[in-house]
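TL;DR need structure tokens for one chain.
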Amino acid sequence: MDLVTGATGYIGGRLIARLRAEGRPVRAMARRPERFAAVDGVEAVAGDVVEDTGLREALDGVETAYYLIHSMERISAGRSNGGFGERDRAAAGNFARAASAAGVERIVYLGGIVPRGESLSPHLASRLEVERMLLDAAPAPTAFRASIVIGAGSSSFRLLVRLVERLRVLPFPAWRDHRTAPVFERDAIEYLARVPQTPEAAGRSLDIAGPDVLTYGDMIERIAELMGLGRVPFRLGLSQTPTASAIVAAVVGQPVELVRPLMESLEYDLLPRDRDAERIFGLRPHRFDRAVEHALREWEATEELVAR
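>> reply
TL;DR here they are.
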């Protein structure tokens, strides 16, 4: 039995569909399971990792537990950016103890690539802390680290698309020259799904990335070109993340508490430590342009992109 936490989220929903396509029995855990769209062969259960409720029942009989939870919801007034880190720590600790008590063989976690030799943003530091806690909680755990996931429902990708769509002049702060290797959603899902059949992944922390290494400025310009839009880049000399976060939040229509951690992550090179995951899993990741084109087509199938 596979357990997928965060079942009503973007990655969780896609992973459940992939696991069921293989015929694997799946239990879907969510705080509000009534919001989970019924899927044949999937049992929906209630569980809250922060409140530590429902975990014992959710983990009963589970061999592989996918932990796809990040506390990026809106922070209450008066709380600092550390709020989501505190919730992530408590949630991961509760889940780790429950999984260990239930005898879960594998915990599979999807976190973020960590910059080399840099002090970490609260967002990235929290994900690394959660990874360490979960790797100690099962006999054969696997942690994946990714930077930007390219997909129609990816928060980071949607933020970039909305900026391109709504701004004719694109302000590029100092982080425009930092580099990353975005990964296509389908590749990320495939890595997650194949863990139980890949013994070499046990006990490992693996970076997953696409083949193209791009600066954030390059990425934004490529998205604009693939959308058929002419945009004028305007280079700024400073990072100005607090101010830029407020502006971006207003432009894309998202709470600044959600946008700021994502933008703080742009202040580093986020590059994979190695390409071991591709070798271990035998995957050939998709190129950036193909991933973007697929994501835009899927997006437009259900939601209008005004600029297109």
